[in-house]
Recover the amino acids of this structure.
């Protein structure tokens, strides 16, 4: 039986590797057939999935392995962690979810080194732009670096829409810019209007930044009181509503045009974070389940279920992102964290979030299965970000 399980795991990984390699070939052929100008040979114009030193390493296909040396830090020693993500402080009883390390299928990735990050980024700025998943990753990176340089002089400024953490001894600034749609939202006659053709208001903050990490996704599907706009403007026309994927693609293409026209890829490194999955439907990892969510989950999904989970429920938004990036003249590196994150049904705050009141925290029917605990999964996102940035 063990041999059968091992064979199934190997087969799943092989099939997923085949999927990624095939996707890469398609993208490369698309580039070859559609780009005959001098920019095609620019080393910054690389495949958004597998590029640079990572062409022989499928960074985003692999397994989660238990590792006693994890986590990188503890939330009690990092003041940057928001209550929303501080699961241990708000009563999460288990700790095994903190001990999993991502192992790509065909390579090893370097362990994160905060001092090396600061030395290589001395005098530079990094900005995460997007929704609260970007904030999750920003706070994670602050904590990971701080753990390696505990005596470094630092400064935190939490403002809206941009918050910044500085490592003063190294001149390194890490910022988070809240822009969940990337494109602008203006108030017109008392209504919030999502302007799908305009990104200039937000983009003023992006010029001159050395490393930009963008993300968007969750807010495009919000409805009711969670929806961040009242009307949508596109092509000079105001709409009361628009199909979410259509609106997302229009907004992303506006963002992409701005990037192509305004970002100098010889000066600024560009990244785009893939869709961060949610775990509200247990049928996604436990076929036939009638009730449940991420509440009570304490371990990752096994390798043998990967082929049934990917691309999963986030396929449509993932395809929009990949299609837009594929057609850019100055494409970002796609940190394709969707699959490895889909496996981490155990890593959400669930009811152990400071954003919930005491009554909500005892009600498993109101869990947060969207964000991620810190320490936790976003630390792996940053380890992969670190790998691509420096290796």
């Amino acid at each position: 039986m063990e041999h059968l399980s091992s064979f199934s795991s190997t087969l799943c990984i092989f099939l997923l590797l085949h999927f990624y390699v095939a996707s890469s070939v398609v993208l490369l052929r698309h580039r070859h057939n559609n780009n005959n100008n001098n920019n095609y040979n620019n080393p910054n114009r690389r495949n958004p999935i597998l590029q640079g030193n990572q062409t022989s390493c499928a960074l985003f296909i692999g397994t989660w392995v238990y590792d006693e040396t994890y986590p990188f830090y503890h939330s009690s020693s990092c003041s940057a962690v928001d209550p929303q993500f501080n699961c241990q402080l708000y009563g999460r009883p288990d700790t095994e979810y903190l001990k999993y390390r991502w192992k790509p299928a065909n390579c090893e990735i370097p362990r994160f080194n905060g001092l090396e990050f600061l030395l290589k980024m001395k005098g530079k700025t990094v900005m995460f732009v997007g929704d609260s998943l970007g904030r999750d990753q920003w706070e994670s990176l602050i904590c990971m670096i701080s753990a390696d340089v505990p005596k470094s002089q630092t400064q935190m400024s939490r403002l809206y829409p941009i918050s910044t953490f500085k490592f003063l001894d190294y001149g390194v600034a890490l910022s988070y810019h809240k822009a969940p749609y990337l494109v602008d939202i203006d108030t017109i006659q008392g209504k919030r209007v999502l302007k799908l053709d305009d990104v200039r208001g937000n983009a003023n903050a992006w010029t001159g930044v050395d490393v930009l990490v963008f993300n968007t996704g969750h807010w495009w599907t919000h409805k009711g009181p969670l929806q961040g706009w009242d009307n949508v403007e596109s092509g000079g026309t105001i709409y009361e509503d628009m199909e979410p994927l259509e609106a997302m693609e229009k907004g992303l293409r506006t963002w992409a045009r701005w990037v192509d026209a305004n970002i100098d890829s010889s000066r600024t490194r560009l990244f785009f974070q893939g869709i961060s999955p949610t775990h509200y439907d247990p049928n996604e990892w436990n076929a036939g389940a009638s009730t449940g969510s991420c509440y009570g989950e304490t371990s990752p999904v096994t390798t043998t279920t990967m082929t049934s989970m990917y691309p999963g429920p986030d396929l449509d938004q993932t395809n929009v992102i990949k299609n837009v990036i594929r057609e850019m003249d100055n494409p970002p590196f796609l940190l394709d964290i969707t699959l490895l994150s889909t496996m981490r049904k155990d890593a959400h705050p669930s009811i152990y979030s400071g954003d919930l009141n005491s009554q909500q925290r005892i009600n498993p029917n109101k869990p947060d299965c969207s964000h991620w605990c810190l320490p936790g999964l976003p630390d792996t996102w940053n380890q992969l970000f670190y790998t691509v940035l420096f290796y």
